[in-house]
Design brief:
Elements: E1 2-7, H1 13-21, E2 26-31, E3 36-38, E4 43-45, H2 48-55, E5 60-61, H3 69-78, E6 82-86, H4 94-97, E7 104-108, H5 120-127, E8 131-138, E9 148-155, H6 162-186, H7 218-227, E10 234-238, E11 241-245, E12 249-251, E13 262-264, E14 269-271, E15 277-279, E16 282-285, E17 291-292, H8 293-300
Parallel strand pairs: 1-2, 1-6, 2-5, 6-7
Antiparallel strand pairs: 3-4, 7-8, 8-9, 10-11, 11-16, 12-15, 13-14, 14-15, 16-17
Length: about 325
């Protein structure tokens, strides 16, 4: 099949690599997001999909919108049999939905109709789901509402971050896309309309979603941190400055530590929550690299009663700074 591929981040690469290597398919064009500024120097970097596609000599387009007439003419001129979409990040207008013979197939990382939207894996982890999966469905004008061709399930493990789970689902998605393309080629594809019950939404995450509220339970804090790792990342404050947080470990035996209060020993840093305490793993003070929490504490020297969050200033019960 002649395939138009649309995708942007690292998670889209397994399917693109498979399509490029497949003797049954030809990638005739690639749509991705424009180069973005990154790092302290704010230099332009291509998306992971753009970098791989250009290295392979594929034709790459990075339009700000697919509503541009020039872009639509380019898509029509490819004469693609099908378009395969993996985390592209742009809406496909109605004028293009029927342009490939078999339409636009989207590999979505949830068991639709659960978690329609931009952050299905992240929202599933934050919500405490134990089962998720991936679905291949046909794009239509509604948000992730099209009929589903195939799906695969996957467990959410206790220590999974969003990055871990996305990587696993991306690999599982290769076989799923392969299955659906074979069905389309043989004329045996039979998409099924999504259920009208069980619909949940997964809007894009913002930095505010990564702010930790220490009054929540340890389990909720653990899930939130894992759900926003690696992006947009979890954070709190210490002495008025942002402190980024990696995954934590719940400590069920410590239940008397007030929410946000630090308990520092030689080899660990505990923080109180609305339930049991949590043990900090990796942390990153503002402008600094990731380090073990105990190494951070040896440099920061938190006073007895120091707290995280709520402005992150001073000691518990002491307003306005350290005593």
């Amino acid at each position: 099949m002649r395939v138009l591929f649309a995708g942007t981040p690292e998670v889209a690469l397994p399917v693109l690599r498979w399509l490029m290597d497949s003797p049954s398919h030809e990638v005739v064009g690639v749509l991705t997001r424009a180069d973005a500024r990154q790092g302290r120097g704010r230099t332009l970097h291509p998306s992971p999909v753009a970098a791989l596609a250009r290295q392979a000599g594929l034709e790459v387009r990075t339009p700000a919108t697919l509503r541009e007439e020039e872009t639509q003419e380019w898509v029509r001129g490819l004469h693609a049999d099908v378009a395969v979409v993996v985390a592209y990040g742009r809406l496909v207008p109605a004028a293009l939905l029927e342009v490939p013979q078999h339409g636009w197939l989207n590999l979505h990382f949830s068991l639709l109709p659960a978690w329609r939207g931009a952050a299905p894996v992240q929202r599933a982890i934050i919500a405490g789901d134990t089962l998720t999966g991936a679905s291949v469905f046909r794009l239509e004008e509604g948000l992730d509402t099209g009929p589903v061709y195939a799906h695969v399930t996957a467990s959410i493990e206790d220590e999974d971050t969003a990055g871990d789970l996305l990587a696993r689902l991306a690999e599982k998605g290769v076989a799923l896309v392969d299955e659906v393309l074979e069905q389309l080629a043989s004329g045996t594809a039979a998409p099924v309309a999504q259920r009208e019950d069980g619909i949940t939404l997964a809007p894009v995450l913002t930095p505010a979603d990564g702010e930790i509220r220490w009054s929540e339970t340890a389990a909720a804090i653990d899930r939130r941190i894992r759900g926003v790792t690696p992006a947009p990342g979890a954070h709190t404050t210490y002495e008025g400055a942002r402190l980024r947080l990696g995954p934590v470990t719940q400590v069920p035996e410590v239940t008397d530590l007030p929410a946000g209060m630090l308990q520092v020993s030689k080899h660990e840093v505990l923080v109180g929550t609305g339930g049991c305490a949590v043990r900090l793993g990796q942390v990153a003070p503002a402008g600094k690299k990731w380090m073990a929490a105990d190494a951070w504490a040896r440099g920061a020297h938190p006073a007895a009663g120091a707290v995280l969050g709520s402005g992150g200033v001073g000691q518990l019960g002491v307003e306005g700074g350290a005593a």
